[in-house]
Amino acid sequence: MDVRAGAGRFEGGSPGVRTRHAFSFGAHYDPENVGFGLLSACNEETLDPGAGFAEHPHRDTEIVTWVIEGELEHRDATGAATRLAAGDLQGLSAAGGVRHSERNAGPGPLRFLQMWLRPDAYGGAPRYTAVTDPAPPGEGLRLLASGRPGDAAPVELRQRAAALHAGRTAGTGAWALPDAAHLYVHVVRGAVTLTAPDPAGSPGTAALGPGDAARITGAHGVRAAAAGPAEFLVWEMHAARP
């Protein structure tokens, strides 16, 4: 279990936009940190009112966005034009190519987490999905996005080896995390404690706060617990980037 503090992320951005990168991204390159599992980006974005990203292209990337605070406006060449609030989710399968823009459409700060991963196959037609409040606080993990056959996820990924879950509680909570070759856990708010069994000794534990993340390899029997209100996202990945 490799814990990365949110304060240690690379910071970038432009006027009105502040970004914290979990992995190498744009002008920031670290050959020892180019991704984890199938993830190639996990960016926490904070935008001032009216600020945003002008229309730009993507291709052959699955882009999943979770809104933390504020109001996100999305427009793209598929004709999609949506506004999402805190707790809402969007998925953009760039496929053979798409152009889109994002901006803060609200009166206050906008904060969202945007995650990129590789698809199973390249090309095809782009696809956009927006989902309102897919994971209200409650017991258990809620499935947000998946490419696994048979999963009825709000967002369908073009990646059969990956699924995204959300854990949210208004009080205390405990969750059994999926067993997978790679787990990526990102804490959005509150404090979350992870426990990972160690066959050779005592269980390993890690306390994570807002913005912190854990990269877990060979995950089996991992549990998460919160002693108060908390929100976190979990990527379950059964393969890695080539």
UniProtKB/TrEMBL annotation:
Pirin N-terminal domain: residues covered: 15-117
InterPro entries referenced in this protein's UniProt entry, alphabetically: Pirin, Pirin_N_dom, RmlC-like_jellyroll, RmlC_Cupin_sf
Domain of life: Bacteria
Residue ranges of coiled coil: none
Protein family: Belongs to the pirin family.
Protein name: Pirin family protein
The organism of origin for this protein: Actinacidiphila polyblastidii
